[in-house]
């Protein structure tokens, strides 16, 4: 081989990350292209390290609105892009108790709080006491029996309470322990229509489950109304 060709081959080898020794190219101490795609020992590296570290379950949960990745109520995401019914069980407590960041639900296990049934980036509807957080996401027809868009019972973080002195709606709506007006707002054909029209003005709003500030659930056909952030006013 001519000296000119040797110099050319040496230049090409250098660009490829190899050493040119006596006309034979050898691997340098650094990784070659094949090592970079293999993990150094010839084994194929993960195709997407980021996806394996973040995990598909979290992405699926965020899309569904439910912590366990499965939306159980209001499943038509075209009609209901920002509200989800999430079946779950949890111990008695306020529906406004802050989440503990535990993934849970009927496909995983009991939730420590009702809020943990909602995916990250979602919250229990009406935890701010504002009807718009619910009513701008679905209509009273979608929520109330007998023609609700879902058969189960899903609870919001608000009572139906009115001011007992004058009968007007309390805003922001509370989450109370009152065994009457304090019962939580509920969506689904399993709920009961009451006498209040505080959540859906001009329409009787359904409720169920028990007082908002002391509501727990052990039933497989009940869950949480989860709304996508931000909270609507």
Structure write-up:
The chain starts with a helix and ends in a 5-residue tail after the last strand. β1 (18-21) and β2 form a beta hairpin. The radius of gyration is 29 Å and the shape is globular. It has 2 domains: 3-48, no CATH class; 56-228, no CATH class. The strands form 3 sheets. Strands 3, 5, 6, 7, 8, 9 and 11 form a 7-stranded mixed beta sheet that branches. It has 233 residues and is of the alpha+beta class. 17% of the residues lie in helices and 21% in strands. It has helices at 3-15, 33-36, 49-54, 56-64, 132-135, 140-143; strands spanning 18-21, 24-27, 83-87, 90-93, 122-124, 153-159, 183-187, 192-193, 206-211, 215-217, 222-228. The model is unreliable at 1-56 (pLDDT under 50). It contains 6 helices and 11 strands.
Biggest sheet statistics: 7 strands, mixed
Mean pLDDT: 80
H/E element sequence: HEEHHHEEEHHEEEEEE
- Going by helix content, strand content and strand pairing, the class is alpha+beta
Task: List its traits.
single chain; 233 residues; alpha+beta; 2 domains; seven-stranded mixed beta sheet; two-stranded antiparallel sheet; 17% helix; 21% strand; disordered N terminus
Topology, please?
Layout: H1 3-15, E1 18-21, E2 24-27, H2 33-36, H3 49-54, H4 56-64, E3 83-87, E4 90-93, E5 122-124, H5 132-135, H6 140-143, E6 153-159, E7 183-187, E8 192-193, E9 206-211, E10 215-217, E11 222-228
Parallel strand pairs: 6-11
Antiparallel strand pairs: 1-2, 3-11, 4-10, 5-11, 6-7, 7-9, 8-9
């Amino acid at each position: 081989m001519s000296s000119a060709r040797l110099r050319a081959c040496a230049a090409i080898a250098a660009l490829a990350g190899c050493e040119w020794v006596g006309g034979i190219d050898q691997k340098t101490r650094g990784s070659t292209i094949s090592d970079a795609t293999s993990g150094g020992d010839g084994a194929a590296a993960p195709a997407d390290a980021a996806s394996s570290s973040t995990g598909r379950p979290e992405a699926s949960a965020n899309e569904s609105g439910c912590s366990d990745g499965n939306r159980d109520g209001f499943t038509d995401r075209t009609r209901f892009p920002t509200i989800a019914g999430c079946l779950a069980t949890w111990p008695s407590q306020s529906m406004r108790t802050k989440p503990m960041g535990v993934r849970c639900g009927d496909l995983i296990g009991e939730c420590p709080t009702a809020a943990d049934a909602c995916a990250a980036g979602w919250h229990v509807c009406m935890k701010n006491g504002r009807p718009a957080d619910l009513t701008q996401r679905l209509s009273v027809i979608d929520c109330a029996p007998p023609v609700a868009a879902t058969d189960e019972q899903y609870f919001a973080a608000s009572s139906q309470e009115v001011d007992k002195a004058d009968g007007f709606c309390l805003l922001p709506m509370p989450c109370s322990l009152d065994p009457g007006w304090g019962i939580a707002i509920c969506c689904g054909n399993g709920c009961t229509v009451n006498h209040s029209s505080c959540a859906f003005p001009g329409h009787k709003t359904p409720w169920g489950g028990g007082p908002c500030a002391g509501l727990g659930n052990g039933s497989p056909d009940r869950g949480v109304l989860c709304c996508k952030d931000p909270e609507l006013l």
